Amino acid sequence: MTALFALATSLLWGLADFGGGLLTRRLPALTVVVISQGAAAVVLGALVAATGGWSEAGPRLWFALAAGLVGPVALISFYKALALGPMGVVSPLATLSVAVPVTVGLLLGERPGPAQLAGIAVAVTGVVLAGGPQLRGAAVQRQAVLLTLVAALGFGTVFVLITEASTTVTGLFLALFVQRVTNVAVGGAALYGAVRRGTPALPAGGFPWGSFPALAFVGLADVAANGTYAVAAQRGPVTVAAVLASLYPVVTALAARGFLSERLRTVQAAGAGLALVGTVLLATG
Question: Which parts pass through the membrane (predicted)?
Answer without folding.
Answer: 28-49, 61-82, 88-108, 115-132, 144-162, 169-192, 212-231, 238-260, 266-284
